[in-house]
From TrEMBL:
NADP listed as a keyword: no
GO molecular function: coreceptor activity
The name this protein goes by in its record: Receptor activity-modifying protein 3
Name of the encoding gene: Ramp3
Cellular location(s): Cell membrane
PANTHER family in alphabetical order: RECEPTOR ACTIVITY MODIFYING PROTEIN RAMP (PTHR14076), RECEPTOR ACTIVITY-MODIFYING PROTEIN 3 (PTHR14076:SF2)
Topology class, membrane: Single-pass type I membrane protein
Amino acid sequence: LLGAHQQIELCNESLMLQKLPACGKSFEDMMKKVDSKKWCNLTEFIMYYDNFTQCTEREANNASCFWPNPLAEGFITGIHKQFFSNCTSEKVHWEDPPDEILVTLILIPVMLTCCMITLVVWCSKRSDIL
């Protein structure tokens, strides 16, 4: 190991930033095939997005940069803002079930527990049968 010399390649950020727009352009061209009303439905373009992700990773690695990194993430975020800024997740408003259902859901386990305890106590007192 004393004679071994490892060469550490430094991340060439400028090269990576030159190459990433080609990934974005390719993704943009592919997204033109998808109706813009369906841009929030991931199943409509998952293959295009996968290709985009692989492209950004490949270009980062070719520039000796790890992936993801802050610069690549910034670029990817820009693409997200361009295509998915109108996609908002609808917040689910949780409500308690009606009282009849809630009482039933509470009472069933309580009654089963009571029945099981009764059965165990009864069986333990009747150990002569077992």
